[in-house]
Amino acid sequence: MSVRVTLLAATAVALSAAVAVPALAAPTGGGHAATREALRAAVKDGVPGVTATAKDAHGTWRATEGVADLRTGERRSPADRYRVGSITKTFVATVLLQLEAEGRLSLDDTVEEWLPGVVRGNGHDGRRITLRRLLNHTSGVYDYTSDEEFVRTYFLEDGFFEHRYDTKRPAELVAVAMAHRPYFAPGTSWSYSNTNYVLAGMVIQEATGRPYGAEIRDRIIEPLHLRATSVPGTRVTVPQPSSRAYGKLAQTTTGPTYDVTALNPSLAYAAGEMISDSADLNRFYRALLGGRLLPERQLKAMKTTVAIDGAPNAGYGLGLLDRKLSCGVHVWGHGGGIHGSSSEAVTTADARHSLAFNFNGDWAGEGEAVIEAEFCGDR
C-alpha cells in the first residue's frame, strides 16, 4: 500500500530523508526563490495546492501555489489550517518529557507499569517495552495502520465512505496491533509504528487523569498562543480558513480524486489527529528547539537519535527526526500524512530558521525537495 494513504507518510519521509536531493540552483531574485520553484514543481507534479511559511533572520515569508478547492478554483491561503498527521507525535513526546521533568514518570518506566495487560499477545510484552522505546520507535510493536482489514475499512474507497465518521477508541487501535506479531524484540531495531504513539497518548491520560489533548492544550497550545492549533478528538471538520483535502483512496497514485476533507480523526488519536497551520508549526518547533518547552536534560534526550535502516542521513529521536541535507545543514522536525493532507515542519537546531508547509493531496509532490530548496537552494 502506498505510504501516502496511511496515517503518516512519515516512514517514507524518514527514509527518503536519507537520499540526498541535489540542491536546487537558485533562480534569479534570491531569497526564497528556490522554495517558490519547488512549490510550483509540486503542483505541476499533481498536488492540488500548497501553502508554506518560512521564518528566518530576515523575517517571515509566506507563499501558496495551486488551489484550495478543485471545484471552485479558489486559491490556497497562507493562513490555511490543515490536518498535520504525525507531526502530532512531536507534541505528544514533548508532553511526556515534561511529565518526566516534573517527576511524574520516567521514560525508563515500562508500558506494563502504566497500562497493565494492554500490550500482550502474539509475542508482544509490555514488560519489556519502555516509554522511551515507544517514542523512538524501537519497541517492535506492530503498526495497526498496516493491518489489511484496517486499510480496507479506512483507507480504500468503499470502506472510507462507509466508515469515515466512525469513532475509534485507542484501546481498539491497540487491539488491532496485538492481533499481529511484533516486528522485532524491543530495543533491537527500528520500525515506525503509529501504535507506539497511541500507547503514549494512553500513558499521558493514565499519568495525569486527563486526555492527552487537554495536556497538549494547557502545556503547549495556550502558552505559545497557537491560535490555529487544536486536538479535534471526534470533530469531523477542519476549522476555517482551510482548503479541501483530496485523496485517491487507492493503492496507486492513479484513478479518481476524491474530496476526503471530512473524517473522524479518532482513527489516528495521538499518532496523528491534530490540526494546525504553518505559522503555528514554526512557532512550536522554534520554541521546542530553542529550549522554551523542555529543560536541557529532556531536550537532549529528545535529540538523542537512533539509526534508521537504509537512511544514513537521518536519525529518529523522541518524536523528532534529524535530517542532514545535501548542503550539510541539519534540520529537526517531523512529517505528517493523513487522508488528503501531507505536511512537513522543520527547524534548524539553533531555532533560527524554520519551514512548515502542506500539500492538500496525498498522492503526489516531493516534500523533501521543498525542504532542500529552502535550506540549500538559494546559497
TrEMBL record:
SUPFAM superfamilies: beta-lactamase/transpeptidase-like. The keyword Signal applies. Residues 40-361 form the Beta-lactamase-related domain. Pfam families: Beta-lactamase. PANTHER family: D-ALANYL-D-ALANINE CARBOXYPEPTIDASE, D-ALANYL-D-ALANINE-CARBOXYPEPTIDASE/ENDOPEPTIDASE AMPH. It comes from Streptomyces chromofuscus. The keyword Heme does not apply. This is Beta-lactamase family protein. Residues 1-25 form the signal peptide. Keywords: Signal.
